Amino acid sequence: MSNSPMSSTHDVQAHGTHAQGRLQWRDTGLGFSPVTIALHWIVAALVLAIIGIEIALVASPNVELARVLNLLGAILFPISAYRFWARVTSWHPLPLGTPNPVEVIVSRSVATALALAMVLLPVAAWLAKSAAGQLVELPGGWIIPSPMHPNAQAAQVFDVLFKIGATPFVLGLALHIFGACKNHFVLKNDALKRMLGKRVEL
């Protein structure tokens, strides 16, 4: 499969036509699948909730809130793993209108990097807490098993890796939101409508 913005319209139209008449599980060159759209907004809600809870915990540590944070991270990981796999193995919908090719490449690169980061960051956080000897507790008294014995040096390494990944992730997320706002308010195209499941003209 190709994610190149130069993919032929003929190829993606043929691929999209083949998917008609049955439930579309995978993206095609003509649009996102209902699965992709639903998971996009679920992940958006999870990420915003995680960021909000992180900020709240910095202001006022709370054990129950920390457990909710762990739960959200545990939910985010498998969803993000599937999204990343689906993204790199499916056609990516053609851009709307006639955008700058450089902007298309940048936006798709940022989106792919964000998808990968949402797989790696929960794992890095889990490893950092496990290496530090902290229990990854969930609401209801459940505990996610630690994959390693406490190790101060490893904990420091994983913590640094998490912070290294989290900073560009937040910047990439801001860039992604900026691009969405530009499409909707400045370019006034149907990019947002497409992500809401509406059928739009390319």
The SS-based structural class is mainly alpha
Shape, principal axes of CA atoms: elongated
Domain tally = 1
> What proportion of the residues form beta strands (DSSP E)?
under 5%
Q: Give, in spatial order, the strands making up the sheet with the most strands.
A: 1-2
Q: What composes the largest sheet?
A: 2 strands, antiparallel
Number of helices: 6
- Helical percentage: 55-70%
The parts where pLDDT drops under 50 for at least 5 residues are 1-10, 12-21
- Counted beta strands: 2
Q: What do the pLDDT scores average to?
A: 88
Q: Using only CA atoms, what is the Rg? A: 19 Å
The H/E string reads HHHHEEHH
**How widely separated are the two ends?**
20 Å
Structure described in brief:
Helices cover 67% and strands 2% of the residues. It has 6 helices and 2 strands, in the order H-H-H-H-E-E-H-H. The chain has a two-stranded antiparallel ribbon with strand order 1-2.
Question: Your description of this structure?
Answer:
- The protein has about 200 residues and is mostly helical.
- Helix 2 packs antiparallel against helix 3 (about 65-90).
- The longest helix is centred in the C-terminal third of the chain and has 35 residues, at about 150-185.
- Residues about 1-10 and about 10-20 have low confidence and may be disordered.
- It is elongated.
- It is built from six helices and two strands; from the N terminus they run ααααββαα.
- The two termini are about 20 Å apart.
- Strand 1 (about 135) and strand 2 form a beta hairpin.
- It has one domain (about 25-195).
- It has a two-stranded antiparallel ribbon.
